[in-house]
């Protein structure tokens, strides 16, 4: 089955053609990062306007790279949540229109499920189904969550951030240090030449007493807003300026605090029959996080599955691939889907 996938949940306009859930024939991602850069974060109105303008060209490009005609497409898959409401609507409307015009089935995909599926898209890796039960870590600009996967589509949220996502912590930290947007890649690079123990930043904990965590073990939840505030006070009190010679050391220390928080929660969450850790999302590109997760997996005898770099950030290949496995919402039910900005990982 050949699936055309469409992804417009945030600031990437993406389309892809995937055969039988694994064979990625094309994956086109148009990043809007330059448009949002001056604002230090994604501006929803700009994102959705840009999706309207870019999506037709991105879909055409995905077909041409795959050498696929409209007749070759067997189904259209699209992210319907979670994400920015106005951005989701653009992809969802386009996908519904295409499915009707082509007279092919529509499939609505939960974006978080696609990130969970992304480490299983590489050649020669075991299938998601055969890897259950496993622990999934989704780390991006919008999400930081630990999920237990018992079967395809059967997911339980074990922990998540109670404030900023890990990617936001990178982005906001970089803005504070005048390093530009998005912060993750710049900080990753700067940290390579820095001392990780230069500043001891707080390893944010989400405490039970605060009563914020519905049914989740607070030790598996994350909090990154205090870290950002600690950086702000450090920068002010120490007089760290743009292009300051201490910048790489501060960045390396800040990154280590984020990575520490992620790795320690993964370590704690593993067990109870789970010997595989699958990691996806834009922040999983971080080289120090990859290194630390590899170390931890070796120490614990856990199997680590990292998404390939091209499938870490938002992309439509993971949407089309997941639909190709039969997951998602299909048929008439898909046609009546609305954009669901707050769709949960436990949702379909
Ligand atoms: O998955 P993604 O493309 O979009 C969302 O769903 O949010 O993730 C984008 C996030 C941004 O916050 C960006 O700073 C972060 O991923 N990111 C990184 C790296 N590359 C991208 N964070 C840390 N290290 C990186 N190398
Ligand atoms: Zn995402």
Radius of gyration: 20 Å
Question: Based on the structure given, which CATH architecture of the largest domain is correct?
Answer: 2-Layer Sandwich
| Total domains | 2
Structural class: alpha/beta
**Small molecules in complex:** 5'-O-[(R)-(carboxyoxy)(hydroxy)phosphoryl]adenosine, zinc ion
In short:
The protein has helices spanning 33-36, 44-66, 85-102, 111-117, 128-131, 166-176, 183-191, 225-238, 247-269, 287-300, 317-324, 331-335; strands at 2-7, 12-19, 23-31, 75-81, 106-110, 134-139, 144-151, 154-160, 276-280, 303-306, 329-330.
Could you characterize the architecture of this molecule?
By secondary structure, the chain is an alpha/beta fold. The chain folds into 2 domains: 139 residues, ATPase, nucleotide binding domain (Nucleotidyltransferase, domain 5, 2-Layer Sandwich), CATH 3.30.420.40; 179 residues, 2-Layer Sandwich (Nucleotidyltransferase, domain 5). The protein is 40% helix and 19% strand. The protein has 12 helices and 11 strands. A 6-stranded mixed beta sheet has the order 3-2-1-4-5-11, sandwiched between helices. A hairpin with a 4-residue loop joins strand 6 and strand 7. Helix 6 packs antiparallel against helix 9 and helix 7 crosses helix 9. The two termini are 21 Å apart. 5'-O-[(R)-(carboxyoxy)(hydroxy)phosphoryl]adenosine (KG4) binds next to helix 6 and helix 7.
């Amino acid at each position: 089955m050949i699936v055309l996938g469409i992804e417009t949940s945030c600031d990437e306009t993406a389309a892809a053609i995937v055969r039988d859930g694994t064979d990625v024939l094309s994956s086109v991602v148009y990043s809007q990062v330059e448009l949002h850069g001056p604002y230090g974060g994604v501006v929803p109105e700009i994102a959705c306007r840009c999706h309207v303008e870019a999506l037709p060209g991105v879909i055409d490009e995905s077909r041409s790279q795959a050498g696929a005609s409209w007749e070759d497409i067997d189904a259209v898959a699209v992210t319907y949540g979670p994400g920015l409401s106005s951005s989701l609507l653009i992809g969802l409307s386009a996908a519904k229109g295409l499915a009707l015009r082509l007279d092919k089935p529509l499939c609505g995909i939960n974006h978080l499920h696609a990130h969970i599926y992304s480490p299983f898209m590489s050649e020669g890796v075991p299938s998601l189904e055969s890897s259950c039960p496993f622990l999934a870590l989704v780390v991006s600009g919008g999400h930081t969550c630990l999920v237990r996967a018992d079967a395809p589509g059967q997911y339980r949220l074990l922990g998540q951030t109670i404030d900023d996502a890990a990617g936001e912590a990178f982005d906001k930290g970089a803005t504070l240090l005048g390093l530009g947007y998005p912060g993750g890649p710049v900080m990753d690079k700067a940290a390579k030449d820095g001392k990780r123990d230069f500043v001891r930043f707080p390893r944010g904990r989400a405490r039970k007493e605060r009563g914020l965590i519905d049914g989740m073990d607070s030790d598996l939840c994350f909090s990154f807003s205090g870290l950002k505030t600690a950086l702000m006070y450090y920068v002010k009190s120490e007089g760290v300026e743009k292009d300051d010679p201490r910048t790489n050391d501060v960045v390396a220390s800040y990154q280590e605090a984020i990575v520490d928080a992620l790795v320690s929660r993964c370590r704690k969450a593993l067990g109870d029959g789970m010997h595989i850790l699958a990691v996806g999302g834009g922040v999983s590109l971080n080289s120090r996080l990859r290194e630390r997760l590899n170390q931890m997996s070796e120490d614990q005898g856990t199997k680590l599955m990292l998404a390939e770099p091209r499938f870490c950030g938002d992309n439509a290949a993971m949407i089309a691939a997941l639909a190709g496995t039969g997951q998602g919402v299909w048929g008439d039910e898909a046609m009546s889907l609305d954009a669901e900005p707050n769709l949960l990982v436990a949702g379909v």
